[in-house]
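Why predict the complex rather than its parts? Because the way molecules touch one another can change local conformation, and only a joint prediction can capture that. The input here totals 686 residues.
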Amino acid sequence: MTETATLKIWRGEDPAAGRWEAHAVPFERGQSVLDGLRWIRVNKDPSLAIRFSCINANACKECMMELDGETVYACTARLEPREMTLSPLSNKTLVRDLVTEIAPPAERFAAERIAVKEKP
Amino acid sequence: MSTSPVHIETDVLVIGSGAAGMYAAIEAARAGCRVLLIDRSLIGRGGATVMAQMTVAVALGEEAPDHWSHHYKDTLTAGRGLCNEPLSQLLCEQGPECIREMEAWGVGWARKDGKITSAFAPGHDRPRCVYVDFLNTGPAVSKTLRTAVYKLKSVARAGDLCVVDLIKSEGEVRGAVAWHAGSGAPVVISAKATAVATGGLTRLYRRNSASANMGGDGYALCLRAGAPLIDMEFVQFFPIGHLAPRLIGMDPIMWDPFRYKLGGRLLNRDMQEFTDRYGVTEDGRYVITRDLGTYAILKEVEAGRGSPHGGAYLSFQHVPEAKLREAFGPVIDRLAANGIDLTKMPVEVAPIAHYHMGGVAADVRMRTEVSGLLVAGEAVGGANGANRLSGNAITEALVFGREAGRTAAAHAKATKAVPAPNGAADEAVALIAGDGPKEVPNSAAMLQRLQAVMADDVGPLRTEAGLKRALAVVADMTAALGDRPFGDGGRFDMQRLDWFDLRNMLTVARSVTEAALARTESRGAHQREDFPGMLPEWRLNQTVRLNGGRLEVSRPPAPRTEVAAQ
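Output of the joint prediction:
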């Protein structure tokens, strides 16, 4: 009776050596893809890497990823009772799983950019 | 993995890049300091500021006469006798200057007839809340501050840096040790002055209106560094957080602006207004304060008169569509995309964790008890007492942020050299670089469990039995968490992030719960079912300290005497 959404998720730290993992997620009308990913972390695998702050408001703009090859915000893309393919942004440097380096270069942590001192 | 930490030096370290942190960074840089602004998320994106939907309380007096002293009086009244008056005064008195500076930097405050217009919000004696349409106040303030920061060459910024501990040596704070989520590496930051602007603790609760990085880290960091917290029992629940139908792409506190502009009717299961039962007659206007609104809705649910999902109805069905569109333009379309037509249906709302009145004890220059350690914004406790007035949060972030930046710069300038950690960073570095245990519980499920127990037993309505139940769960979870971070220590290791978060959240949860257990009365946001009524002998502020790993709640020997607002 309960419908499910199947999230097929790209996992890995090396763009050339990743793997696909599928998880069935209980589907409830009105939910977002981010809800489904958060469900997977709590119920299946807490190691799944996703980036988000504001959860539902589409204010932080951090949860960008690709859904079936299109760039979306996971918090506003609706969960659907079908197989949905999720992958990291293909035009950004991969960090891990669905997390990519999306900060502007001047806002990334880079030791060489910030004054580095010798270890005291 | 690499265990030798990257070492960075700066004059001023600012932790957190909401409005308070960004303003602190700007101000310290303007005073001639090198600043490092870091955030556990992206710069200027996470935190609470960007989520602010509408109002910023400030006595500008543009449309109609106002004076900061009126704002101050309302703030003290809302705080139910517990405000730290000098902090409240600072907020109200300097608010106008900060708001005008925001405007000079590009925030387009809504105007009518050329003048900055103000909305009326509950608890204020007149219209006093400026805003940016439509529901764009937080994003506009964040963007403006980000741009202002960007223009300053002496401010370096770095995201994905999650602070694990402050560095404390010889009685003073000398910077912080951070875990770089992107690489998993430890980073040691030495600073002459450190400002904590990490926001509140709403993530401790199941339903909350702020972002996932508001887990009270700053409170835990300061506690561990020896700085006391105050008023930790006062967690503000926002009464009309969105409950149903499921809505995406919108902030759950969005109905606040709707009520400011359109009034709206708060109804029970029987479609009847009910706040008069709890002493407030609204009659289609928006006048109920947050503590009373939360109480009224929860009591109505308890009496079996709640809406289907366990809240209340909020109806704008009496408002013509043209008026809805005039007030909220594109937002009406976003609602339609979610299947919501306000002319045809009410929505369901219920209290949602929103803001923390408590926080780190600080003076009007934002100094904590520990030398070299400053706080700013929601991390500061005391300005709003037992209940915060609508609109004071962004004002507080700006005013306190600016002040913290000034004080940090003065402290840095009076300090000759960047102080060395002298080994005080080693423990945190080892924690970050260490291997995790082989068998670990699900960290995300642990977080969810903590949120559930806090919502059920340390929410707006509390009892001794519930609070003790929560303490037992927290103790149990603290044992399960252990002293070695979970995960593999690799890039963006979410289990390790959860572990660091839980370490802080469990400490903060204990602080809130212990303080709530000790306060045997009801006041503002703290309602004890077993101790109803506000007692004069409880007109005092409790302090929480960490002493050799033990949390201690203490209170002054005598209640405070009445200080009349001028």
